[in-house]
Amino acid sequence: MVTKLTHFSWLGALIIAALIFTRCFEWTSIDQPAVAAPNSSFDVKITLKQDGEGDFAHNLYNMGVFGVQLPEGWTIENDSFYYSIKGILQNETLPYEYEGYITYDQSYATMYEDSIPSDDGYYWWGGVSDSSHMDNLDSIYVELTILTDDQLGNFNLQYGMGTMDWPEGRMPVAEGGLSPKVPITIEESTSVKRYLKKQVTVYPNPASEFMHVDVGEVKAGSLQLFSITGQLEYGQSIESKENTIDVSSFAPGTYFLKVSTDEGSYSKKVLVK
């Protein structure tokens, strides 16, 4: 009888602790375009808030993790993105604000994949915050840029907010921290992206030493070369119709060339051999 009571008491305490310490999130808004172009980029702006009342909403003190389920071939620009947080820190009374970056980490990408297996044709991008205060606060705002490839059709993106909390140790999605799937259609654009696509010519592609970029009638802007994981590898201003990039020291593989102007941007998949 004593054993049963002890076990019951321990189980009840564990349940109460879970209720007290579990992070609860609500997706206030997901500003994701309904339509985007192939080989281009689009911005996503997300706001979450803590869904809880009382002091327990500020009890934890650990790192924040963020995941994005993307179609294979897509990636996040620079493999990192901006976030800001507001609220009150643990054991504090004054308002607190912080802004920083969530940066890709393979271990967290694996954590998301292991915890929430991705759909066929998709994969989990996973990153961690640069602040130990991220999950203590009342609201979280993130702003990321996603790079598409040449696939056309209908896709569903999904976002996950979590934390590195006791007792799980790894908690990729807190309670309410998995967003609904957000649809997006990739189709040929008739806007600036289509104009830039017609203007930009890359040769040779694949390239082994020098990659030449003809920007046609584009007068001003920038050229950036990103790795398949979204890491910026090279950048320069557009100074003439003909531009040359030395790729002789680049690792062989797939890259994204992004042409940016004041009116918009266009990304093209290129190869280095």
What characteristic shape results from the CA principal axes? elongated
**Overall structural domain count:** 2
End-to-end distance: 72 Å
Q: What share of residues is helical?
A: 10-25%
CATH hierarchy: architecture of the largest domain: Sandwich
Structural class, judged by helices and strands? mainly beta
Task: Report the CATH topology name of the largest domain.
Answer: Immunoglobulin-like
> Stretches where pLDDT falls below 50 for ≥5 residues?
1-23, 54-61
Kindly report the oligomeric state of this protein: single chain
Count of alpha/pi helices? 3
Number of strands: 18
Largest sheet: 11 strands, mixed
- What name goes with the CATH superfamily of the largest domain? Immunoglobulins
- Tell me the radius of gyration: 22 Å
Mean pLDDT value: 79
Which CATH first-tier class of the largest domain would you pick? Mainly Beta
Order of helices and strands: HEEEEEEEHEEEEHEEEEEEE
Beta fraction of the residues? Answer: 35-45%
Written account of the structure:
There is one protein chain. The protein is mainly beta and 273 residues long. The chain folds into two domains: 23-186, Immunoglobulin-like (Sandwich); 192-272, Immunoglobulin-like (Sandwich), CATH 2.60.40.3080. It is built from three helices and 18 strands. The protein has helices spanning 2-21, 106-115, 192-199; strands at residues 25-31, 35-36, 41-50, 64-71, 75-76, 80-88, 95-104, 122-129, 139-147, 153-163, 182-186, 201-203, 210-214, 222-227, 232-237, 242-246, 253-260, 265-272. Strands 1, 2, 3, 4, 5, 6, 7, 8, 9, 10 and 11 form an eleven-stranded mixed sheet that branches. A hairpin with a 6-residue loop joins strand 6 and strand 7. 32% of the residues are buried.
